[in-house]
């Protein structure tokens, strides 16, 4: 999570600095460059920041571009004041277009990230199915799923325990929620609890064991990742059931 915070901080810093640097680079040409063309160059800078940063960074970059366009590229120079009516219209359009385009750039980046994530999830599920279709042993399927869970959920470690239920551990449920059931009390978690978390493996209505997840401290992974983890565990259960291994209940 510290990596995400560092990225967000860098994006906000870029939102402030990049439009300023671009405006400064245009200063030697401001007498020959039309205000419209200067504004278009600044819009490109806003899009560049938004494509790499967050929605907030994109909006901040648009505001920064509008401010430095006023300060450096419109008369009177080096003052936050615009004398010409056309320049005022250009500045307003720069701000509006910068805000809109920056949000579209952020949305496109998030959509691309979603597509990549979905492709990775599909690859994990296909990999498990392929092992089963190839007649690999259920132990090989379980080991494959164990490795996938470590990467998918960002775990410190993961192990599989056959056919035993000892202790009362928080459980990753079929709906992606994380719950701890105690007599007369149910606790729902928004972050990983201390210690191990169990993900039960069931096939054909029979309980075969559980994956014991050893997470790093922090918030839970996205719900989609948790649901894929549950689906992977179900595939492991199907492989164990097909092989006719002994089960509990």
TrEMBL record:
<dbReference type="Pfam" id="PF13493">
    <property type="entry name" value="DUF4118"/>
</dbReference>
<dbReference type="InterPro" id="IPR038318">
    <property type="entry name" value="KdpD_sf"/>
</dbReference>
<keyword id="KW-0812">Transmembrane</keyword>
<feature type="domain" description="Sensor protein KdpD transmembrane">
    <location>
        <begin position="13"/>
        <end position="113"/>
    </location>
</feature>
<protein>
    <submittedName>
        <fullName>DUF4118 domain-containing protein</fullName>
    </submittedName>
</protein>
<keyword id="KW-0418">Kinase</keyword>
<keyword id="KW-0547">Nucleotide-binding</keyword>
<feature type="transmembrane region" description="Helical">
    <location>
        <begin position="6"/>
        <end position="27"/>
    </location>
</feature>
<keyword id="KW-0902">Two-component regulatory system</keyword>
<keyword id="KW-0472">Membrane</keyword>
<feature type="transmembrane region" description="Helical">
    <location>
        <begin position="39"/>
        <end position="68"/>
    </location>
</feature>
<keyword id="KW-0808">Transferase</keyword>
<keyword id="KW-0597">Phosphoprotein</keyword>
<dbReference type="InterPro" id="IPR025201">
    <property type="entry name" value="KdpD_TM"/>
</dbReference>
<keyword id="KW-1133">Transmembrane helix</keyword>
<keyword id="KW-0067">ATP-binding</keyword>
<feature type="transmembrane region" description="Helical">
    <location>
        <begin position="88"/>
        <end position="106"/>
    </location>
</feature>
